[in-house]
Each structure stands twice: as structure tokens, then as C-alpha cells.
Amino acid sequence: xxxxxxxxxxxxxxxxxxxxxxxxxxxxxxxxxxxxxxxxxxxxxxxxxxxxxxxxxxxxxxxxxxxxxxxxxxxxxxxxxxxxxxxxxxxxxxxxxxxxxxxxxxxxxxxxxxxxxxxxxxxxxxxxxxxxxxxxxxxxxxxxxxxxxxxxxxxxxxxxxxxxxxxxxxxxxxxxxxxxxxxxxxxxxxxxxxxxxxxxxxxxxxxxxxxxxxxxxxxxxxxxxxxxxxxxxxxxxxxxxxxxxxxxxxxxxxxxxxxxxxxxxxxxxxxxxxxxxxxxxxxxxxxxxxxxxxxxxxxxxxxxxxxxxxxxxxxxxxxxxxxxxxxxxxxxxxxxxxxxxxxxxxxxxxxxxxxxxxxxx
Length: 361
Ligand SMILES: *Cc1c(COP(=O)(O)O)cnc(C)c1O
Hints:
Helix content: 25-40%
Mean pLDDT: 97
Strand content: 5-15%
Strand order of the largest sheet: 2-10-9-8-5-3-4
Bound molecules: pyridoxal-5'-phosphate
CATH architecture of the largest domain: 3-Layer(aba) Sandwich
Number of domains: 2
CATH class of the largest domain: Alpha Beta
Number of helices: 9
CATH superfamily of the largest domain: Type I PLP-dependent aspartate aminotransferase-like (Major domain)
Radius of gyration: 21 Å
Number of strands: 13
Order of helices and strands: EHHEHEHEEEEEEEHHHEHEEH
Structural class: alpha/beta
């Protein structure tokens, strides 16, 4: 077996023990006589799998009882529409912070459903920081305030949970969920595509406070209506069975092998610091994200010379460092160092960066 260090932004690296356990259970799950992939979702054995996945996620994240956990499909991108369809009444309005390209996509999609306003933007500096905003900036009567908590392409992250008072805070946490503890009670709704930090693609997790459920517009597709999906325990139709199973194993790995999210955070901060400390100690590479808002999940940097960036990515791949190229809309390099990226992988990358800098000065 030969596994590379995979720095992809998503689908991304998964914990090796999870892959190994899944492999051992691939052909026959337990004594069911079949693979999880072949199972009807309306069987006690699958109901146990999805139920345990939810229970473990609740335990790991400390999700309060007055929140529903939904396992949906359509990616975070469907929630760009799902959020306004469910939370923005006809004739209502909502506020958005535009802190990166995904935040912008969410904002633009919401425009189809009503009046939305950008109350904070970092576009003036290519989204290299998180703009300040507070209760006073919120439009009176706003149905919610939407933020993209960790900006996957740009490598920035909110340094604290914004205070929106009584207005529900809705957060796209696709690339930072489970990276550290978050106080879920500070949010009205959290959504995240699984393929960054939870499991394979095909699964989207929505964590939503009870009082925000049941107000969807009439035209909302049933599979996108939080109430219908909550009432049917995410099984109105066939759920992404296998992705939920793998995500469940990842949640158990976090709890049983890592020891919870506080421990995970300590590992993640140490990993990110390996990269940032090196970046700060030299001048060959530039790290565009402002220090106060640096992401511990996605680390962006560039040399300032596009050809050299290309050469870096090519030589890195030859050395077993895969998918280090920055998002096509941003350029440069991006190291996505999600939970499953081992510390050795980050150290290996830093050593490679030093060598490359020495050879190309
Ligand atoms: C990856 C990503 C998305 C898009 O997710 P899909 O599951 O591909 O729709 C949206 N927001 C953020 C923050 C992301 O990292």
C-alpha cells in the first residue's frame, strides 16, 4: 500500500483507521450478510447505523436537545437555496456577510428568494480578512444573518462567533465543522457538506434549532424542507446510506481515538502552526490571510510568480504531496489540513517547502 499526503480541499483525506474499518466491513456488515451499500435503509440494521451516527455527532459536538440533526443531499450548495426557502418568508429580508467566494455564492443564490443585503464584505482586500460587524449593522427585521465561517478557498476563518442578538445566525461550516469545539447554541442553523471534515461527498449535515423549522415556503421541495426531513428522520426518501455510515465511523474516531473536539483542536492548532510559523520566518512564500483570521484548516500561500507556483505543485506531486494547488479562482497553493491529515504530513510539506525555496531563490 502506498498512500500520499493528500492536501485536497474536498473530497479530502479520511482517517486511515476509518478506511480500514470500512474495508473490513465492506463485503459483509456485521452478520447482516450484505454490504451497507446493498442494504435497504428501511431495515433495523440500517436504522441502527444512521441512529448511531446522529447520536455520536450530537455527543461529539455537544448539540443541544432543541436542535435537529438532518442528513441531507445536494451539498452545501443546495443549502445556499435551502436556507432562504426555509427561513426567509415571502416579502422578508436577510443579511449576509460576504467573506469569500463561497459566501458570495450563498449570497447570490439567496437573491432568487427575496431581498438580501450584504452587511459586511472583505472584497476590497481579496477576502484576506474577516470584516467586523455587530448587532448594530443588522437590518431591522432580518430573518437571519448568514456567514461562511471558514473560507475554504481564501484560508480565512472567523476568530469568534459573531453576535447577532436575537436574529438567528446561519453558518456554512463545511470546512471547519468538527475542527474544534463550537458552542452550537450560538447558532440558529449550521450546515456543512461532509466531504471536507466528516466523510465522503453526497452527504450534507444540517443542524437547526427547533423554532426555525416548519416555516418553509410552499414551493420548497420536500427533500429540502427541514420539517419534512426532520419528521421523517432524514429518511423521506433514500438517504446517502454509505456516506452516512462512513461519517458515523469518523464521528466515532473523533470520540474514541482522538478523545473529542478539544483534543482535536490542540492537534489542529499545532499542525497549522507548523506551517504558519515557517511562513512567518521567511520571505520566499507569501501568506495572504491576515494573521488574526488565519484558518487552521486551509492554509493559503504563493510565491508571487505563477510559473514558480506551477513548478512547486508539480515537484510536490512527484514527492507524494497531492492536491496542493490553490483554488482556480484564487491561485497559488493551498494546504487543506483537515482533521485526518496527520502531523507528519504537515511536517513533510514544510520540509519540502524549505527545500524548494532553497533551490529556487
Ligand atoms: C466546499 C464548500 C462548499 C460547496 O460544497 P458542495 O458540497 O460542493 O456543495 C460550500 N461552502 C464551503 C465553505 C465549502 O468549503
